Every structure is written in structure tokens, then in C-alpha cells.
Amino acid sequence: MRRVPCAIDITASPALCRALRADSELLGKRYRLTERETARLRAIAGHPGMTAACTVYRMNRLAPLAMNLRGTLRALGPALRRTIDAYWVDHPRGHAHFYIESCRFADWLAQAIAAGLSVPATVAGELARETAFVRGALVASRTEG
After folding, report:
1. For residue 54, which of 14, 24, 35, 62 is within the disulfide window of CB 3.0 to 4.6 Å?
2. How high is the pLDDT of residue 93?
């Protein structure tokens, strides 16, 4: 069991949110919470607005990738959703710095492809080109002027 900000976990994972709606004991199995915290989180997970909250969270996670790795995402085509979902499982927390998040995704995708992830043939070229740009932008963003 862990003691973490599980409200973030619920918002970041629509699957977890749905699971909590179906199994009210799941919180106790995953987290160390007081009764009050458990009741609040059950209410949060069950709130009709959580669907929108999960969507907004995922849009915010996707934004840096869409801005910095647009060609790669386009090249992924129908494989995009499963690829992004797999990345978010491996990296459940995003990074506020867009270039860091983009580099992290690019590195993850390159490793996944090397390990056998099936993607369209055009992805590797787009990924290499855009990764070089993002790495350069990241270095420039860290330079104090």
C-alpha cells in the first residue's frame, strides 16, 4: 500500500476511476487512507464531472507532444491511442516542462520501437527528426541569459 496523492491517480487514469466506481473496496487495497479520505475519494470518483476531469487531464498531457512531436503523432496514425496509453501507464505523471515531457516520450517511444513495438514505417524518421529539434530546444530553454 502506498500513501500518495491518489486523487491525481484517479484523474490521470479513467480506468482506475471506473474501477473505483465498480469496487468501493479498491481504495483500501491500493492506498493507506483514513475513513474520511476514503469517503471523499469515493465521492470524487463517482462524481459525473470526473469524466470531464479525466479528459482535461489527458488533453494537458497530450499538449506538449502535439506541439513538439506533431509529425511523430501523425505518423503513428491509428497506433497513436494505444501508444499514448502505454506511455502513460509507464509514466503516469506528466512533467510541466513541455520539452522535458516531449523528450521523455520520444525516448520512451524509441526504446519501445527498438523492443518491438509495431508502428508505421514512417514513425522512426519523424521521431528522429523531431527528437533532435526538441533536444536542442530543451538545451536552449535551460540556458540562463
Report:
1. 14
2. 85
| pTM recorded for the entire structure | 0.82
Integer Cα distance of 125 and 121 in angstroms: 8
DSSP letters, the chain, are -B-S-HHHHHHH-HHHHHHHHH-TTHHHHHB---HHHHHHHHHHHHSTTHHHHHHHHHHHHHHHHHHHSHHHHHHHGGGHHHHHHHHHHH--S--SSHHHHHHHHHHHHHHHHHTT----TTHHHHHHHHHHHHHHHHHHHT---
All three cell numbers of 104: 521523455
Task: Tell me the average pLDDT of the chain.
Answer: 90
Q: 59, 84 in Cβ contact below 8 A?
A: no
Q: How many residues does the chain have?
A: 145
Q: Which residues contact 88 (CB under 8 A, 6 or more apart)?
A: 12, 13, 58, 61
Residues 6+ apart with CB under 8 A from 36: none
